[in-house]
Amino acid sequence: MKKIGIFASGTGTNFEALASSDEIKSLADIKIMVCDNPGARVIKRAEDKNIECFVFNPKEYENKAAYEKEILEKIKELDYIFLAGYMRILSKDFLEAYKGKVINIHPSLLPKYKGIESIKRAYEAKEEYIGVTIHYVNEEIDGGEILAQDKFKVDYSKSLDEIESQVHDIEHRLYIKTAAEILKGEK
């Protein structure tokens, strides 16, 4: 059974999707949830599932290297790291320690709309399709080899909130499917 960690910063809906999936639970043991936001809702979600949490405030550290060193100590046994709305950029040193083992989900059809507010930017640009990308993480923001994408044709009679909800539905389904493939060695 693989040992995985999930990193998150916010509400934790993608964390919840992965941690609640029977398929993921049959393939992996979620050893830890790492969060850089002491007020994030994802902490309660992890606690409710009896998953160890490492919660830190980056402002309480001298620099990124200091908090990443502590994270690396906490996760040294992991086979994979799944980023689920983790809003920190991982350093080159961190990525070297887990080369090819860090996976991210992003709410756009990469390479378009990297960074924040991706759904809003795609919606405002009147893109015909909006979707989700799952990719390996490298040093480039929202870069790295694309593992999976899914999309839907946008109905502009729907509000941005409704479109965001559609994106989240795809995220949860696609992340579970792709994570399971990774854990089985199929990706």
Automatic annotation (TrEMBL):
Query: From which domain of life does this come?
Result: Bacteria
KW Transferase (keyword) present:
yes
Instruction: Give residues annotated as binding (6R)-10-formyltetrahydrofolate.
Output: K64, M87, R88, I89, L90, N104
Q: Which UniProt keywords apply?
A: Purine biosynthesis, Transferase
Which segments constitute the Formyl transferase N-terminal domain? Answer: 2-177
In chain numbering, the residues marked as site (Raises pKa of active site His) are D142
Active site per database record:
H106
Positions that bind N(1)-(5-phospho-beta-D-ribosyl)glycinamide: G12, T13, N14
Pathway the protein takes part in: Purine metabolism; IMP biosynthesis via de novo pathway; N(2)-formyl-N(1)-(5-phospho-D-ribosyl)glycinamide from N(1)-(5-phospho-D-ribosyl)glycinamide (10-formyl THF route): step 1/1
Which GO molecular function annotations are given, in alphabetical order? phosphoribosylglycinamide formyltransferase activity
Record-linked PROSITE patterns? GART
Q: Which reaction does it catalyse?
A: N(1)-(5-phospho-beta-D-ribosyl)glycinamide + (6R)-10-formyltetrahydrofolate = N(2)-formyl-N(1)-(5-phospho-beta-D-ribosyl)glycinamide + (6S)-5,6,7,8-tetrahydrofolate + H(+)
Pfam families recorded for this chain?
Formyl_trans_N
- EC identifiers of the protein: 2.1.2.2
Protein family according to the UniProt entry? Belongs to the GART family.
Q: Which HAMAP family match?
A: PurN
Q: What does this protein do?
A: Catalyzes the transfer of a formyl group from 10-formyltetrahydrofolate to 5-phospho-ribosyl-glycinamide (GAR), producing 5-phospho-ribosyl-N-formylglycinamide (FGAR) and tetrahydrofolate.
Q: What is this protein called?
A: Phosphoribosylglycinamide formyltransferase
**Source organism:** Anaerococcus kampingae
